[in-house]
Amino acid sequence: MNNKKIFASTAILSLFATFLVFFQNFQPPVSTATHPNILIILLDDLGYGFFYNSKISTPNMDELRRNGLLFDRFYVHPMCSPTRAALLSGNNPLRYGLHRATGSSVGDYKQSRGIQIKEENLPNLLKKAGYATAHIGKWHVSNTTGSEHPAGLYDYMELWSGSAKTDGSSTFYNPHLDLFDSNKTWLTTTPPIATYKGYLDDHTANSVIELIANRPKDKPFFINYWPQIPHLPYERTPDFPNKPNYPNTDEGLQSEMISFFDFKLGQILDALDKEGITNNWTAGVKLESNTVKKLQ
């Protein structure tokens, strides 16, 4: 894989500020020859410490770190919703009342606010710059009703969630496609809003791969990929090549989930190579989100 143009970073607000300055004065048309394709991957509940953790097998992320640019002194919020809102808006998430996860309760206070879709934001700026835009995976930065509904924010959007077991506990298996929105820029077929067999981030990563293969060839793309790995619940993943034998503990299961995502990341990078994109000044940005526990 030719990944020298792919960057590994923990920057959130700084990254958005760079995009804001760089893209706000662009006017279409743009071309794939002069403008980088952008892939942002924001992992859920993953801390910086995993980068140098010899107990976790992540060969593809290790290659990004070795051949890319690693910012090791940038910080994110300790909850997922504020981090995501900062990335999309470039604003302090407290501006939107996002102290914790969207919809969470603290005492008598129920948080229901989120980012305002009509405000200037990263996907809108890139749209104005002539990019084809897509979002795959988790959302969790606003309600999906009323003025905060994200429909139309991207050219293509798939919002996914896990499911519930018979005992009421959550699982990444048999995931649900909650929202689909498209202006047909990417795909002409519409996936059904339904529960799917299999593993949540197997589906989301495969969707990213499909988008790369079916991207508009006349413009650069921006794909914002937010998998739910390695968020709770910690559970065994599907088998994958060279799967390590992790212990059946919270730390072991979370490590297995990270290794599974690294395997899917390798497939995404292979898809970029197959399309010849990594040789065309492609910038892929790897972001690490918050963490709920430190891996020793």
Structural class: alpha/beta
Estimated helix fraction: 25-40%
> What is the strand content?
15-25%
Biggest β-sheet: count, sense, barrel? Answer: 7 strands, mixed
Q: Uncertain segments of ≥5 residues (pLDDT<50)?
A: 3-14, 104-112, 283-296
Order of strands, widest sheet: 1-9-2-8-5-6-7
Mean pLDDT: 78
> What integer value in Å does the Rg equal?
18 Å
Approximate shape: globular
Number of helices: 6
Taking the alpha carbons of the first and last residues, their distance comes to 30 Å
From N to C, what is the helix and strand string? EHEHHEEHEEEHEHE
- The tally of beta strands, per DSSP, is 9
Please give a structural write-up:
The strands form two sheets. This protein has a seven-stranded mixed sheet with strand order 1-9-2-8-5-6-7, sandwiched between helices. Strands 3-4 form a two-stranded antiparallel sheet. A hairpin with a 5-residue loop joins strand 6 and strand 7. The protein has 296 residues and is of the alpha/beta class. It is built from six helices and nine strands; from the N terminus they run E-H-E-H-H-E-E-H-E-E-E-H-E-H-E. The protein is 26% helix and 18% strand.
Key descriptive features of the protein:
single chain, 296 residues, alpha/beta, seven-stranded mixed β-sheet, two-stranded antiparallel sheet, disordered C terminus
Topology (SSEs and partners):
Elements: E1 6-9, H1 13-23, E2 38-43, H2 59-67, H3 80-89, E3 105-106, E4 109-110, H4 122-128, E5 132-137, E6 156-164, E7 170-182, H5 200-213, E8 221-226, H6 250-274, E9 283-288
Parallel strand pairs: 1-9, 2-8, 2-9, 5-6, 5-8
Antiparallel strand pairs: 3-4, 6-7
Helix pairs in contact: 1-4, 5-6
